[in-house]
Amino acid sequence: MSRDRQEIVFRDFLTEKDIPAIKDLVRSTEVFNACELKIAEELAWETYAKGVEASGYHFILAEIEGRLIGYACFGPISCTENRFDLYWIAVQKNEQHSGIGKRLLAKTEQKITELGGVKIYVDTSSLGLYESARGFYQKHGYRPETVIKDFHKEGDDKIIFAKDLRHWRKTQGE
Q: What pLDDT sits at residue 84?
């Protein structure tokens, strides 16, 4: 079947088989370190074991013919009013630059607005390895809010991007 004819299926629940698939997917990007791989896996396990309400983590998964090709993980920020963190958005390395990330982000933003969210925050690194991630966020309306110098390690700043979804709602006709 040609790539153009393969249907991408999106879903917002986890199965047990998704957890190792998420870890493999995150590893395939060749961007995240061992600690980050472990965290991606732990968030999935926690959500699978406790459920979305108890864990506070929401997932959107993209798959083709049952194979995970991308996912996003997000949740409300404790002690804030209608603010959400986008913890993860990752696309299988061989599927990157195909529009899957854009579709995952749009579905994430839609779900967050359905949950009452008005602002999304996402953290990334200042290292060159993350240049495409920073460009991706900016291309989709995220703006750098702050830079925390040497956050991850010397010479590796934490950049926090944000997007106000009230504008998103207006463009969607709400």
A: 98
Parallel/antiparallel/unpaired status of strands 83-91 and 67-76: antiparallel
Report how far residue 32's alpha carbon sits from residue 29's, in angstroms, rounded to the nearest whole number.
7
DSSP letter for each residue of 59-81:
EEEEEETTEEEEEEEEEEPTTSS
Are the C-beta atoms of 60 and 10 separated by less than 8 Å? yes
Which pTM was predicted? 0.90
Domains parsed from the chain with CATH numbers: 3-171 (3.40.630.30)
List C-alpha distances in Å: 57 to 84, 136, 154, 161.
10, 22, 30, 19
Q: Which amino acid is at 167?
A: H
Confidence of residue 1 (pLDDT cuts 50, 70, 90): very low
* Residue 2 pLDDT exceeds 90: no
